[in-house]
Amino acid sequence: MHDGSGRIVVQNLTKQFGPVTAVQNLSFTVEPGSVTGFLGPNGAGKTTTLRMLLGLVTPTAGFATINGSPFGRLGQPGRVVGAVLEAQGFHPKRTARNHLRVYASAVGVPDGRADQVLQLVGLGAAGDRKVGGYSLGMKQRLALATALLGDPQVLVLDEPANGLDPEGIAWLRSFLQSFARSGRTVLISSHLLAEVEQTVDQVVIISRGQTMYYGPLDHLRKSQQSRVIVQPSDVNGLVTALRAEGVTSIEQLPDGRIAIAGVTSKHVADTALKAGVSVYGIQEEQIDLERLFFQLTSGQYAAPGYYVQQQVPPQQGGWA
Amino acid sequence: MGVMGNLLQSEFRKTITTGLWWGLLIPTVLLAFGWALGAGFVGKGFVDLASNADVEQLSDLLGVTPDQWKVSLFGIARSINIATIFPMIFGGLAISNEINRRTITTTFLTAPSRVSALTAKMLVYILWGAIYGLVIVLSVALGVSLSSPSSLLPDFEGWLALGIAGIVASILMTMFGVGVGALMTSVVGTTVVLLLYMLLIENGLQLVLASQGVDKIIGFLPNGSVNGLTGSVAVDLFLKSAGVVPSELEQVLRVVAGSMGAMDWWLSGLIFLSWTAIVFVGGWAATARKDIT
Fold it and tell me: What are the chain B neighbours of A108 within 8 Å (beta carbons)?
């Protein structure tokens, strides 16, 4: 029924809700043994993609597989993939233990597993309370406990940090990392890069239903660009001199300064000296990961099918 | 235990881990018992009246023997019919509540397929329909036995026939509810529509149809046909033991049994089964294909 590889494949996935295209031709692969962050702003299509992966939403085009098989053909899906999609999937009058026992039956694991996962997520003492009285953070933990019932190989989490306190987030982070280190697969979505930055090894960044970047987070880190802001005595003179050296990404700022990307401040200062242009002020500005994420997802690079796999050398920093 | 056994256990646990099953069973018992008790008194009053000297002369003239009429049969049928409202509501919440509470997501994530999850749910609700039906029949039996002299009560065969008809009606009403709930997907909407239709709209429609002289159509409507299932069993049993009954009286008896315009019990049963199949298959198809967003 499935190949046991732990691999998630999303291929040319498209979903249209009436006139709205929620997901457009999305492709990426998630490998086992690592935590993959699935990032994009709210409304980018993350939840729809995850729900298509889990067979809850039918794709308009394309396909998604877990262990080489569509969700509907996994046989016993609860033993292969666990999902935390929302913290609301509970009957408020049912106790947490009974909730878990209901689904322990469906997955085909003994009732004792319900108590195990309650302990695992730190709800051991609250197991006999009705879920209606739970806080959002407790519901998130119970949702995770439900996902873990079948001891799955693949874990899919949609914004699991919502409602968790800092302690809960730290706990979740270490839990997911150890889960992945045991050779299993974790796909976790978030609209905040900073929230998952310390958890994930790989990232898939989407915007407006399309893939903007996918690959190791380290590559993205290395591609953090720096730009040099300079205030020359003669703007045109400096721009001409830089262009002559093949530097093209030059931008005039509203305050009269110019910003040059992909060069060091030393380079700019040397060029200015050679061109006989005085430099009144020069500073190097680093674009951090969060800003890069914002640029990736604000549509700046939103050409269809464009993958940002660039490898810009890390900035050298400091004053020239 | 196989996959289907697991799912059946899961679905059954869902129903017993919230208070809905007994929350609806209490009014079911009270309504079934109360109606049967009251109907027993009304039946006894009728027979007492028919047995008094003046009326007896008229009866003798007509050649009928109303003091031997097992009028409690009609009370039993009507009490069963009214009480099956509750298993219908119980069924109505089966899927709509899961969609409303969003537990349907986990249900579909833990089942091999939606078809298997829905099949397990269907079987569990058939069981619940039977449980409610049995409780209804027992409550009705208790109520009518307390208020009717034993001469007016059905014999064992009669109890068996009515009991089976009651349980089948309760199962079908539960399934009808499941289908409507799956189509409507809203808890409040399902409850309101089911109650309004079964208690008000169709009864009004029945009066209109009867006044237009087309009361045969009533037997084809959902409520008319399910009432016909139990009502016609009661009428058949009544006629078997009543001695001489003028043929013109038969339609009147069906009205008394609460099944105006009804066909034979088996035909009524098939007609309501068809209604149930239509809403159930519709609700099933909608749920099996629905995007769970």
Answer: 1, 3, 6
Chain B residues in contact with A94 by the CB 8 A cut-off are 17-18
DSSP 3-state of B111: coil
CA atoms within 13 A on the CB side of B135: 21
Topology annotation, domain A8-221: Rossmann fold (3.40.50)
Rounded CA gap, A12 and A31, in Å?
18
Residue type, A145: A
What percent of chain A clears pLDDT 70, i.e. is strictly above it? Answer: 91
A20 vs B: CB within 8 A:
no
Judge contact between A205 and A211, C-beta under 8 A: yes
Mean pLDDT of successive 10-residue stretches along chain B, which has 293 residues: 92 96 97 95 84 71 70 92 96 95 95 95 97 98 92 90 96 96 95 94 90 87 92 89 73 80 88 95 92 90
What is the distance between the alpha carbons of residues A172 and A180, in angstroms, rounded to a whole number?
Answer: 12
Q: Which of residues 213-272 of A touch B (CB under 8 A)?
A: none
Alpha-carbon distances of A138 from A7, A130, A132, A309, B102, rounded to whole Å: 30, 11, 11, 39, 17
Q: How many CB atoms lie within 10 A of CB B182?
A: 29
CA dist list (Å): A17 to A24, A42, A231, A302: 12, 17, 50, 21
Q: Confirm or reject CATH 3.30.70.100 for domain A226-286, answering yes or no.
A: yes
CA–CA distance, B281 with B274 (Å, rounded to integer): 10
Q: Which of A56, A98, A157 to mutate to test the interface with B (most CBs of B within 10 A)?
A: A56
Sorted by where each begins, the domain ranges of chain B are 3-289
Number of inter-chain CB pairs under 8 A, A vs B: 87
pLDDT at A284: 84
Domain ranges of chain A: 8-221, 226-286
ipTM of the complex as predicted: 0.89
When CB atoms are compared, the residue of A51, A106, A150 closest to B293 is A51
B112–chain A nearest CA distance, Å: 5
User: CB neighbours (10 Å) of residue B196?
Assistant: 11
Q: How confident is the model at residue A302 (pLDDT cuts 50, 70, 90)?
A: very low
A8-17 and A210-216 beta bridge pairing: unpaired
B2 has a chain A CB within 8 A of its CB: no
